[in-house]
Amino acid sequence: MDEEAGHSRESAPVPVTFTNLNYTVKTKSGMLKIIDSVSGHFASGKMTALMGPSGSGKSTLMDIIAGRKNSGAIEGEILFAGEKPSRSVTRHLCGYVEQFDTLIGELTVMQMLMYTAELQLPVTWSHSQREKRVNEVITALGLESCKNTVIGNVLLRGISGGQAKRVNIGLALIHRPSILFLDEPTSGLDSYMANEIVLTLTALAKDSRTVVSTIHSPTTYSFALFDDLLMLKKGSVVFEGPIRAAESHFVSANLANAPDKNMSFSLPEWLVDITSGHAAHLKGNKAVECTPEELVSAFSRSDLCAQRAHERKLLEAPPPGSALRYDSKHQAGSLRRLGVLLKYRMVTHYKSGEFLGPRIGDKVIFGLLILSLYWDIGSGTDAQSIQSTASLLYFMMALCGYGAAAFVPSLTLDRPLFYRELADGNYNASTYYMAKFVEEAVLATFTSFLFGVTVFWSCALQGSFIVFVAAYYLTTMTGICLAYAVAALSPNMDAANALLPAYVTVCMYFGGLFILFDRIPVGWEWFSYTSFLRYSWGTLMNNNFGGDANRTIAGGVRVFVGDNGTALTVNEFYGFQGDLMGSTAACLGLLSLLTLIFAACGACSLHFVKFNTR
Fold first, then answer.
1. Could you write out the DSSP letters of every residue in 24-53?
2. Which of 67, 116, 227, 468 has its CA at 20 to 30 Å from residue 268's CA atom?
3. pLDDT for 94-135, tens place per residue?
4. Cα angle at 494 between 491 and 498, to 5 degrees?
5. What contacts 563, CB < 8 A, 6 or more positions away?
6. 8 Å CB contact between 422 and 612
7. What confidence tier does 10 reach under pLDDT thresholds 50, 70, 90?
8. Are 594 and 527 in contact (CB under 8 A)?
9. DSSP helix/strand/coil, 563
10. Neighbours of 260 (CB within 10 A)
11. How many CB atoms lie within 10 A of CB 479?
C-alpha cells in the first residue's frame, strides 16, 4: 500500500456484468415488476448509453447496479470484474452523478471539491495531496477559469449550468472511481453544453473507466460519441450492443422501416420512436407499431444477443489481481468528518446574510419591541405590573418556539444534498445532525446573550442575568431541536411549517399562563409535563419572583388570592412551588431533558425516515 492508501493512482479497469436482474415494488394493487429479467454488461474503457421511453426503467436499472436502491426487492447477479462486490466496495469503485445538481451555493468550485476530498480521501493523504487531486479533477473537467468562483444559488449569482454539471461530475471523480454512473447528465443544458459534457465523458472513459449514462434526448453528435447502447421498454431489454448495430437490428428484424436519411434524420429519436411504438411517423407512412413483447422477443432471438451473452460470460471470469480489494481502515472517522462539515459549512454559513438574517433579525426586532413596550415593567409591585411581567416572561419563551420556523429550511431545503452525500458515503446521519446542532448551538450563544442584554435591564427584570440567558438559550435550543425533529419527519417544508406552529400553540395552552396547572381538565394534565414552556417559563418565574434576593421587589408580596380566599404569592398562584417546579435548577434540568429528547427524535428520524425512495 503506497502513500495514497486505499485508493489506486489510476482507475483500474472494472467491467460490469449483470444477469437476470429483476426488481419489484409493492403497490396498493399488488407487486409491480419494474425490471424484468435484464442481462447485459458494461465494458471498461467505453461509454454506454441507457435509453428508452419515459418509465422504461433506465434510472432504476442504473440505481440497482450502483447499489443505490433503498426499497423494493432485487433478484439476480451483479458482478464487478467477475466478483460480487460488497456495499463498501461498490461505493469505493463507483462514482454517481445525479440528474439534478446538489451543490453548496456559498462555496467556490475549489472549496466544494476540497470539501468532498477531505470527506472521501484517506486520512493518510496530506493536504497537498488532496489539493493536487482536486486540481487534477479541475483540469480534466476544464474548470480552471471558474475554480475560485462561488457556485451560487437562487439568491447568489455564480457559475453557469454547464459548469455546475461539471462540478457535480467532479465530485464523483474525486476518489478515482473505476465505474462512473450518470443520470441524465445533459438534462437542462443547451445542445452546445450537452455536447461538451459528453465529450468530457469520452475523455474519462479513455482512462480505462467504465462510463454508463442514462440519456433521454441526446443530440445526434453527442449520441455518436457513445460506444454501446442498452435500450429498455417496460423494464425489459429491447437492444444491447454497439450503437452502430442498432439501426440494422431493428430494420432486419422487421420492427421498423429503414429510415429516410435524405430527410432530417436523428438516430436517437428514431430509436426512441421505435420503442415507443411510433417508428414510421418520420417517414409519413403507415405506422409500424410493435408491442413490447415483440421488441423483447426479436432481440432475444438475434445473433447479437447471443454474441453479447458470450462476451458477458468472458467478463465474468475474475482477472488476475482482483480490482475489488479495498482497505477502508484509512477512511476518515466520524469525528474528523464532523470537523470537515464545520470547517466548510458552518464557517461559510456564518458569512452568509441569508443564513444569519432569520436567526439574528427576529431577536433584534422583538428585543427592541419588548424594550419599548415593557420599559421598567419589572420594578412594579402592584398586581397589574406583576401580571404583565409574568406574561412578558411567558411570551419571550413562546417566541423561541415560533421562531424555530427559521430552522426548518436548514433540513428540508438541504435534503437533496444530504441524501446524495449520504449515498456517496461522505458521512452518516448522526454526523450530519451533530454538525447542524453545533452550528446552531454556537450561534445561539451569541443571539441569546444579545437578546438578554437588550431586554433584561431595560425591563427591570429581577434575579440572575446568567439564569435568564441560560433559560433563553436552552429554550432556543429546544426550539431548534424541535424544528429539526419536525423537519426530519415531514415530507416537505409546507408540512413542516404547518406542523411546527401547531405543536407550539398546543404547548402554549398547557404552559400554565392561559390555564393554571391545577385547572387543567382531568385526562390532560399529563400533556402539561411535555410542554417545554412549562419548564422554560418556570425557570424565569423562579428566577424573577422567587428567592430571598427578590422578596424586596415582588416575590414575597401576596397580590393574588386563592380559591379559599387565602392570599398567594406570584409563584404560588401560577403553580411554581415545591421541590420540582419551585426550583430554578430543576426547571432548567427538565428543559434540558426535553431538548435532548427532541434532539434524539430528530437524529433518529434523519436516520430511519427517508423521503427519497429510489
1. EEEETTEEEEEEEEEEEEE-TTSEEEEE-S
2. 67
3. 999 999 999 999 999 999 999 999 999 999 999 999 999 999
4. 105
5. none
6. no
7. low
8. no
9. coil
10. 12
11. 29
What is the residue whose three cell numbers read 470527506? 119
Report how far residue 494's alpha carbon sits from residue 487's, in angstroms, rounded to the nearest whole number: 10
**DSSP SS3 for 18:** strand
3-state secondary structure 339-358: HHHHHHHHHHHCCCHHHHHH
Give the model's confidence band at 324: pLDDT under 50 very low, under 70 low, under 90 confident, else very high.
Answer: low
> How many residues can be counted in the chain?
614
611 secondary structure, DSSP code: S
Nearest to 478 by CA among 437, 510, 521: 437
- Give the span between the Cα atoms of 413 and 99, in whole angstroms: 17
CA dist 429 → 433, 510, 609 (Å):
6, 33, 11
Spatial separation of the C-alpha atoms in residues 254 and 274, rounded to whole Å:
11
Average pLDDT value over all residues in the chain:
89
CA distance 135 to 544: 59
The C-alpha atoms of residue 17 and residue 561 are separated, in whole angstroms, by 83
Question: Residue 278 and residue 289: Cα distance in Å, rounded?
Answer: 6
Compute the distance between CA of residue 105 and CA of residue 606 in angstroms, rounded to an integer.
23
Closest by alpha carbon to 386, among 518, 572, 529?
Answer: 572
Amino acid letter, residue 266: S
Q: Is 180 helix (H, G, I), strand (E, B) or coil?
A: strand
What is the Rg, in whole angstroms, of the alpha carbon atoms belonging to the chain?
31
CA 338, chain centre distance (Å): 16
Task: Write down the number of H helices and E strands in the chain.
Answer: 25, 11
**What is the full DSSP assignment across 68-97?**
---SSEEEEEEEETTBPPPHHHHHHHEEEE
Distance in angstroms (rounded) separating the CA atoms of residues 502 and 479: 13
User: Does 282 score more than 60 pLDDT?
Assistant: no
pTM, whole model, 2 decimals? 0.89
CB-based contact 378:544 (threshold 8 Å) = yes
Contact 6, 327 (CB under 8 A): yes
Residue pair 239/231 in contact by the 8 Å Cβ criterion: yes
Going by C-alpha positions, the residue among 328, 338, 399, 337 that lies closest to residue 365 is 399
Residues 505-520 have pLDDT tens digits of 999 999 988 998 888 9
Q: Which residue has the cell 411570551?
A: 395
Amino acid at position 223, single letter = F
One-letter amino acid at 527 equals F
pLDDT more than 70, % of the chain = 91
Per the CB < 8 A criterion, the answer to whether 167 and 114 are in contact is no
Rounded-to-integer distance, Cα 312 and Cα 99, Å = 28
What pLDDT was estimated at residue 431? 97
More confident call, 277 vs 510:
510
